[in-house]
Amino acid sequence: MSQSNKKPRIPVNIIAGPLGVGKTTAINHILENRPAGEQWAVLVNEYGLVGLDAALLERKDESNAPSVRIREVAGGCICCSAGIEFQMTLVLMLRKRPDRLLIEPTGLAAVSGILDTLDRKGIRESVDVRSVICLLDPARREECLDREIVRDQVDAADILLGARSDLASDEQKSAFENWAHGFFPKKCHVGLIAHGQVPSTLLDLVSHDAGTAPRRGHHHGTDHTHHHHANNARQEATGENKDIQLENQCDEDQPLVSLAHHSKVASTLGWICWRGWVFDMERITAWLGNLTALPGARRVKAVFRTRQGWMSFNAADGVENTCSSGYRRDSRFEVIIENEPLPPANVLEGALRECIAQPSK
Q1: Distance (Å, whole) CA 245 – CA 291
Q2: Where along the chain do its domains lie?
Q3: CB-count burial class (<10 Å; 0-12, 13-18, 19+) for 51
Q4: Helices (DSSP H) in the chain: which residue ranges?
Q5: Is residue 174 helix, strand or coil?
Q6: Which residues contact 222 (CB under 8 A, 6 or more apart)?
């Protein structure tokens, strides 16, 4: 089939968060503000057998707006026990060719598992995974993060929103924002909302279709060098995000971007790799160990895809930690070096390429 005859991929958003954080309220708000004339679909997952969330989603029958198709998968998490039913329902909904599909997983579901399903052959060709949004109550943040599932939802999210912020104290809201801004890779957007009022502009802040949506950039006021196998672009943002740029995105044809930031105080080297690169765990761990041993290396951070799954790595002050990660966008590596010249980036990049086990199918 020629490229011109291919049907456009359907935008898909996941609206995640722990139980009781207000996901259904947020989706109702998003649906109320969808573009006129567009046909949207919502796939709702409930852990219990008695489906209620779909019933709580408002169906409006204005004559000038198409109805919203709502399907429910109950009786387990769509990331595991209800996974087969999720796949079947998902395929049926995609065949209807909605203009957008929203997925609301139960608060007990791992978003990483849902993203893995969306990436399966036969499904990934039809979907464009746009912004993954996670809602978290600032007043219950520490309590919720005690649960591994919530940590997975947070890892997988592109956007973190402090929901129910009208019920949180100033101290709790400040603590939430400080925590949310500390992730690697950085979240594309961090904010506070009340009454489920998710800005519609956030739905397309991120895209798996390279070049179609803006992603947040940042500036340090110091020298940066970029070695690309992808195109640079800059796009003006709306609202308060006036400095959003199209972040370097990778694909099979342009699989690697190298980034360097030079400063008298501390410099960084970083790499963004196409998510189709699957790394050998033993080799990539050894490569990361070599980064930590570089003269002046203060911290090494990474998220990467291996044959054992997606992993995160963090090394600082002689302490290393490797664990599974819910992040799914791409593989990323960064080393921070103090008071020493940066090593040859091309040498390290060559060694990084040698850690590839296989391209993803």
Answers
A1: 28
A2: 3-204, 223-359
A3: middle
A4: 23-32, 53-56, 83-95, 111-118, 141-144, 148-156, 170-180, 281-292, 345-353
A5: helix
A6: 261, 262, 263
Instruction: Find the distance separating the first CA and the last CA of the chain, reported in whole Å.
Output: 19
Percent with pLDDT over 70 in the chain? 78
| Contact residues for 94 (Cβ-Cβ < 8 A; gap 6+) | 10, 101, 123, 126, 127
**For 3-204, CATH number?**
3.40.50.300
Quick check: 132 and 16 in contact, CB under 8 A?
Answer: yes
Token pair recorded at residue 327: 């992040």
356-359 vs 277-279, strand pairing mode: antiparallel
Q: What is the pLDDT, as a whole number, of residue 209?
A: 61
Sheet of 69-74: strand order equals 69-74, 40-46, 100-104, 10-16, 127-136, 159-162, 189-192
Backbone angles phi, psi at 171, to 5 degrees: -65, -40
From the list 16, 268, 349, 301, the residue with the least C-alpha distance to 163 is: 16
Asked if domains 3-204 and 223-359 share a fold, the reply is no
DSSP state of 235: -
15 by Cβ neighbours in 10 Å (0-12 / 13-18 / 19+) ranks as buried
299 phi, psi to nearest 5 deg? -155, 145
Nearest Cα neighbor of 21 from 146, 125, 133 is: 133
CATH code of the domain made up of 223-359: 3.30.1220.10
Phi/psi of residue 185, nearest 5 degrees: -65, 155
Residue pointed to by tokens 């065949």: 95
Question: Contact at 8 Å (CB) between 131 and 15?
Answer: no
Cα 109–chain centre separation: 15
* Nearest alpha-carbon partner for 303 in 288, 292, 290, 316: 288
pLDDT band at 242; cut points 50, 70, 90? very low
What would the pLDDT profile of 23-52 be if each residue is shown by its tens digit? 989 999 999 999 988 999 999 886 433 333
